[in-house]
Amino acid sequence: MAKFSLGRDEEESEAGPSSHSESPKHKKQKTSKEEVPKEDDDNDHLVRSGREGISISSSSISVTLVDPEVLDCSICMEPLTPPIFQCENGHIACSPCCTKLGNKCPSCSWPIGYNRCRAIEKVIESIEVSCQHARYGCKETFSYKQKLTHEETCIYAPCTCPVSDCTFLGSSEQLYLHFSSKHWASARRFQYNCPFSVSFDKDDSFLVFQGEEDGRLFLLNNQIELIGNAISVTCIGPSSVMGGFSYDLISRRGRSSLRLQSFTKSVKGQMESSLFVDFLMVPYDFSRCFGQLKLEVCIWSSRELE
């Protein structure tokens, strides 16, 4: 069994020589003259320091990093994934950053993007991590290089409650249950693929819709612009549901009408103050309802259309 020691402080001065021989398969170059003392259990050893804890078995090592950002690219701050490059002075960067910077190290101006940092690549490839959304219910573990891809679409990514004075934060499923329990009267219930009418003040920033079938939450976003109201529909939930729902918006005045057909965008909470690409612009002089906006809305579920 191999013995490893990382970041030892005071314990190095107290450690005595080990009586175990190293297996050729796992032989490591020693960086210290002192080794970890023999423990009562010959099959497991525990090495602790002021910064890291390492539990060693015959098959794997469990490591807790005090600063997980050491495994992120220092330029873009995204998780490092192979290929990883280093300059002559040892500064490392991910491949996309090397290209964007014209293969010039931002730390020392030496060329970068030609020499691979194999040691860091092997570390990255050997690490398995848990999803950062584990506290909200995700049980997935995956290699470190898959971390960003998984978490961008994780169905347990936390969402905030759209009610302004509510501080609830949880997965989308937890949010739907919370909203049904605590804010039932704050949403308009609807059925997928069935048109319904809504009326609201022109100054209202949003309305909440909740699906009767699945409890899913949608926002009718209303932004005030110079020429009128820009209206769109978003779905509160993980980005993995993007494209799963489409919607129709119709504003009528007599025999005239304005209409938008689009797909919902997934958001983690109440819409921020920026326009989406798709929206229905209702000019101020188009609606004559004494400060009210009247719309016909239909939200379509792709599951119902298959």
TrEMBL record:
- Region annotation (Disordered) maps to 1-51
Q: Which GO terms describe its molecular function?
A: ubiquitin protein ligase activity; zinc ion binding
Q: Which UniProt keywords apply?
A: Metal-binding, Transferase, Ubl conjugation pathway, Zinc, Zinc-finger
Q: Which Gene3D superfamilies match?
A: Zinc/RING finger domain, C3HC4 (zinc finger)
Q: PROSITE patterns given for it?
A: ZF_RING_2, ZF_SIAH
**Annotated SIAH-type domain residues:** 126-184
Q: Which reaction does it catalyse?
A: S-ubiquitinyl-[E2 ubiquitin-conjugating enzyme]-L-cysteine + [acceptor protein]-L-lysine = [E2 ubiquitin-conjugating enzyme]-L-cysteine + N(6)-ubiquitinyl-[acceptor protein]-L-lysine
Q: What is its EC number?
A: 2.3.2.27
Q: What is the top-level taxon of the source organism?
A: Eukaryota
Give the pathway annotation: Protein modification; protein ubiquitination
Q: Do the record's keywords include Transferase?
A: yes
Function according to Swiss-Prot or TrEMBL: E3 ubiquitin-protein ligase that mediates ubiquitination and subsequent proteasomal degradation of target proteins. E3 ubiquitin ligases accept ubiquitin from an E2 ubiquitin-conjugating enzyme in the form of a thioester and then directly transfers the ubiquitin to targeted substrates. It probably triggers the ubiquitin-mediated degradation of different substrates.
Descriptive protein name? RING-type E3 ubiquitin transferase
Q: Source species, please? A: Macleaya cordata (Five-seeded plume-poppy)
